[in-house]
Amino acid sequence: MKSYIPDYPRPQLVRSSWENLNGSWNFAFDDENIGFAKGWNQGVSNEQTIRVPFSYETKASGIGDERIHPRVWYSRTVDVKEEALQGRRMLLHFEGCDYRTTVWVNGQQAGSHVGGYARFSFDVTKLLHAGENVVAVLAEDSDDTRQPRGKQRWVEKNFGCWYVQTTGIWKTVWMECVPETYLSALKLTPDYGHARLNIEAQIEAERFEEGVLLEAIVRYQDAFIASTAVAVTRKQVNLQIDVCSNPGEHEWSLHSWSPENPQLYDLELRIIKDGKPEDTVLSYFGMRDIRIDGRQILLNGSPLYQRLILDQGYWEDSHLTPPDEAALIEDIEKIQKLGYNGVRKHQKIEDERFLYWCDVKGLLVWSEMAAAYTFDDTAVSDFMTQWAEIVRQNYSHPAIITWTPVNESWGVPQIKTEKQQQSFAQAIYYLTKSLDPYRPVIVNDGWEHTVSDIITLHDYEEKGSVFLERYAEHIQELLDGTIYHNLDRAAFADGFSYHGQPIIISEFGGIAYNNDDSGWGYGNKVNTEEEFLERFAQITGAIQQLPYCCGYCYTQVTDVQQEINGLMDMQRNFKADPEKVRAINLQKISSLHR
């Protein structure tokens, strides 16, 4: 893609003028809440340093302290040239900082943000001067179960499937130099049926002047496809562009995006002022259509059988933060080598470079929000605000085909019977649909569904024969609540019922090898690769035989700390022959899904 720059943190809105601020920062714990009084907002002493973007809990940070510290401070200097401040804006971007973040530049507050998983930015132009500037960051975290935390523990030790917490900066920090009038956000919607792209562009300007244009240029593999331009008269500018033909020159067929053939178009956007480019941004998009048709999920009009794998995105020495961009590519390529065509990114909003490479390599993504574990007014408000941020930020990635805001009733433990929690689930569904009316939404993945475009069931039954009998012969009873599945859970909350939606087994398996009993998997552990493959084949084959089921999601890609049920260990070594796993995933399935 023309827009690709190695390590660039925001691949769908790319400019050439940027500076990566990852690396060594001064760092301090502030358990006694004395940092502000000591003037740390003007800079932290260099007695201790940390390697950003790795959280202090990780070995990769250079600290490796897994204890809970509620407040941590960072600072570093940034050199700014005089010419960068002449008629330009300087933006300071944080791709992710957990959980409450306050930022100062040269001792003056630049802004604050709540939430650990969404990107946020500050215009720091007026706070900078030519030469050396000090950026200081206070990150505050807690064990509050009302905040969306995903798989981060809220007690002193790991337990179950909850792991070491992540505090503070854990994604890239960077600065960007932009013109006075610049493009700040894009929402790209493929209109597959009409072979055109709908563009919603967000423009920032001190004032909107006459004669300013937004131009969009589409290319495919360097070949010009089409261009269009509209006047910029307000903050949001909408335009449409045909992506199928270039009248008078060449005729082009529509280049569709799919896992088998992930074709992408290049998109260049330019703000034209006084006949000259004021701002130039490179992006890309995929033309694809995802929709529900009865009990089928259709991609570009054809039934899509989803072979997904649960992906929690943890690494041994860096936890939630990928060691580098190459590690993200390695995971995607190994997942595809195993015969999967998608991932359910579990309880984490991944580095956006991961989504870029899923777009490029054709790996489907279910995007799932990090859960809270208490239900009250604060939890509801925070969750909805942060989830809306994430949907808006990642909307334009063609690889994302499903939104999954809630998992297994986490954060809504009484959703089965309580109307208030059911109303929250419905509100999240309709909030998501208001931002994205096109993708399927699964509000409570696994069980106790309210309103949902796909009905998903989790079941860690280890015997394929038992699984097949349960889901081949008793699916109607499972759906109507006569019998429960997995941990005695109902498919629907009280007052809700099945209305013919597609059905996917979205968690199963979790097979672990015997070791020193320090870790766990689901069911009994296996002793050999042969035993693993036999059980894996039986349980996967049982799902593949279900004529009504249009996909599955196996648990999981890699081991994660004490949870050792990955197809790979945390060093990304395969535990079983990947070609044999691939053959099982690609074996003949129900004729309904051929």
Structure description:
Helix content is 16%, strand content 31%. The chain folds into three domains: 22-171, Galactose-binding domain-like (Jelly Rolls, Sandwich), CATH 2.60.120.260; 182-285, Immunoglobulins (Immunoglobulin-like, Sandwich); 305-509 and 522-558 and 578-588, Glycosidases (TIM Barrel). Helix 3 packs parallel to helix 4 (419-435). It starts with 17 loop residues before the first strand and ends in a 9-residue tail after the last helix. It is globular, with a radius of gyration of 25 Å. Strand 13 (182-191) and strand 14 (196-204) form a beta hairpin. It has 594 residues and is α+β, with helices and mostly antiparallel strands. A seven-stranded parallel sheet has the order 28-27-26-25-33-32-31. A six-stranded antiparallel sheet has the order 3-2-4-10-7-8, with no helix packed on it. It has a four-stranded antiparallel sheet with strand order 1-12-5-9, with no helix packed on it. It contains eight helices and 33 strands.
Tell me the structural class. alpha+beta
Percent of residues in helices: 10-25%
Distinct helical segment count: 8
| Low confidence ranges | 590-594
The strand count comes to 33
The rough form would be described as: globular
Q: Let me know the largest β-sheet.
A: 7 strands, parallel
Q: Could you say what the CATH architecture of the largest domain is?
A: Alpha-Beta Barrel
| Radius of gyration, CA atoms, in whole angstroms | 25 Å
Q: Could you give me the name of the CATH homologous superfamily of the largest domain? A: Glycosidases
CATH hierarchy, class of the largest domain: Alpha Beta
What does the average pLDDT come to?
95
Quote the beta fraction: 25-35%
Count of the separate structural domains: 3
Identify the strand order in the major beta sheet.
28-27-26-25-33-32-31
Report the CATH topology name of the largest domain.
TIM Barrel
Query: How far is it from the N-terminal to the C-terminal residue, by CA?
Result: 32 Å
